[in-house]
Amino acid sequence: MAIDSDLELMLRVCRGDTESFEVLLRRHRSPLVGYLCRMVSDRSLAEDLAQEVFLRVYQARKRYQPDARFTTWLYRIATNLALNAIRDRQQDSKLNGGAERTSDGEAGSRLTEVADGRPTAEQELIRSDRERIIREAIEALPARQRAAVILHKYQGVDYAQIGKILALSDSAVKSLLFRAYESLRTRLEPLLKGGQL
Amino acid sequence: MKPKIRCAEREQLFAYACGMLNPREAGELGTHIRQCEACLRVVESYRWVDEVLDAWRPEEPSPSFDSRVQAAIATGATTSAGLWARLKGGLRDYWWGSGRRLAPVMVAMAVAVVSVVVLRERHAPLRPPGQTQQVVRTIKQPSSGAGLSQASIEASSSAVDDYDILANFELLSELPKGHGKPEDN
Fold first, then answer.
1. Chain B contacts of A82, Cβ < 8 Å?
2. Could you give the count of Cα atoms lying within 13 Å of A90 in the half-sphere of its Cβ?
3. For the segment A41-51, what is each residue's pLDDT rounded down to a tens digit?
4. A27 to chain B: nearest residue by CA?
């Protein structure tokens, strides 16, 4: 059986086919929640934002123009929501005297607790520690660099598509990624020195 | 002699490591990298970062995620995060759209309104002296009976509005001394 493309499914959703929307939801929920979790470092907020993304897609179904990939549209909505959430949190953090790091730390713990519902072995502890260092290194990046790295590295989105999602030129995307990787190289050095590879 | 790597070149090396270059550029730089240990180390460092990032496992949606999305679609309800984002987004869009362009006009209008109010207060026509005294007399000698007459109420109302009367209000001087002070217990 041929797998329907996102475009075909979305065109059916435009005509009122709710089952096609459920197919799109099942197909994209995991990557989308994963993306938003990495972006905002808070599982609960990430799920709220992902829910909002799907709701907006559904509500805008009649206005959908198949001139770009469905995932470009999906991740553009998600990225805008995530960047707004990050900015709001930073503003709240400034108002609350810099509680952002604490909040992030708690969020990180929550993520680990939810993800690891099973008993933790020593190897798992080391792995979790390595994940924490990576997460903190990516969290420390400016929001757009963070989005570019996550889209490129974890969502497998190509540079042209990242450019459309972030409204940047190809060369600006490459420059953004270069600066992000330069920062990450420095921040991830403890993993190299600590032999956690 | 090994070529010195500058920032601009590092960006090229990063593009090479991530496969961003076109085949011709990649071929030329690849030839150089095979001969230059310094450039090779830089390329390997970017590849190392890319490998390290693999260790960050993705989060999965909670089991109730689909039902929450479907419920939200059925009711058209937005999440609290979404609602706030929409509200702020609307204000932001307004500001960056027409709002910012209209801001000077709105400020000018606000200044004009305030100026009109202030000037109106300063240059409000004063009542003729006779009418003022009549009002004062009305207040001094209220009409007999349980309540004030409609005319005296109107006169009192206009008296309160009249800056001239308020500025020269002498009735309080007729009050016995100590009136209004809290009684000592």
1. none
2. 11
3. 999 999 999 99
4. B66
